[in-house]
Design brief:
Strand content: 15-25%
Order of helices and strands: HEEHHEHEEEEHEEH
Number of domains: 2
Helix content: 25-40%
CATH class of the largest domain: Mainly Beta
Number of strands: 9
Number of helices: 6
Distance between the termini: 24 Å
Oligomer: single chain
CATH topology of the largest domain: Immunoglobulin-like
Radius of gyration: 18 Å
Shape: globular
Largest sheet: 5 strands, antiparallel
């Protein structure tokens, strides 16, 4: 709670803070496809989300702000894990609805490859009772001790870390950039 600045203070410095966060998040966002991206979350990105919600809703009540902190705290990565938000986005609502139906079961098809290890994403929730998935998912990637050592000791420039989507309707493998790997290394140091 102490890290959330007052609404008045935030509004005074918001433009500069937003500019810095956009640049910071640029290193942490992975474009998986033309309609899908993954944003790796950490303390800075989650605090930014909370500050923006406080700003958008003009919140000054401590109890209401605490509610947002409680809602968004699970997005923080735990020890030895990465946390991310998966976005499935399209401007055309009909196309998006079709894509969400096609991607039903994505909860069992997303992985991160670290060196030679394949680590399945753990989704906050599954959508097995419906005929479609949602457009926003919160996921965790628990790093094994071997994967963590690889990330910490392999230079970002020569690391092999990829996002893999192995779904019946979509197969993608996207290598993380040196910038993204460097940012993720900072999260587990």
């Amino acid at each position: 709670m102490k890290d959330v600045v007052s609404l008045h203070t935030y509004k005074l410095g918001r433009d500069e803070y937003v500019r810095k966060m956009i640049e910071y998040k640029r290193r942490r966002r992975v474009k998986v496809s033309e309609y899908m991206s993954l944003l790796f979350e950490n303390r800075k990105t989650v605090l930014f989300q909370i500050q923006e919600l406080v700003n958008a809703e003009d919140l000054e009540d401590a109890d209401e702000i605490k509610e947002y902190i409680d809602i968004y705290s699970p997005m923080l990565p735990g020890e030895d894990e990465w946390s991310a938000t998966l976005f499935i986005e399209m401007d055309d609502l009909t196309q998006l609805e079709d894509k969400l139906r096609q991607l039903k079961g994505i909860e069992h098809a997303l992985f991160i490859e670290v060196g030679t290890e394949v680590i399945p994403a753990i989704f906050e929730e599954e959508h097995t009772e419906r005929e479609f998935t949602t457009s926003v998912h919160y996921v965790k990637f628990p790093l094994t001790p071997t994967a963590k050592q690889y990330v910490l000791h392999e230079p970002a420039s020569s690391s092999h870390i990829s996002i893999v989507l192995d779904h019946a309707n979509v197969h993608l493998e996207i290598a993380l950039t040196e910038d993204t790997i460097g940012s993720l290394q900072e999260d587990i140091r």
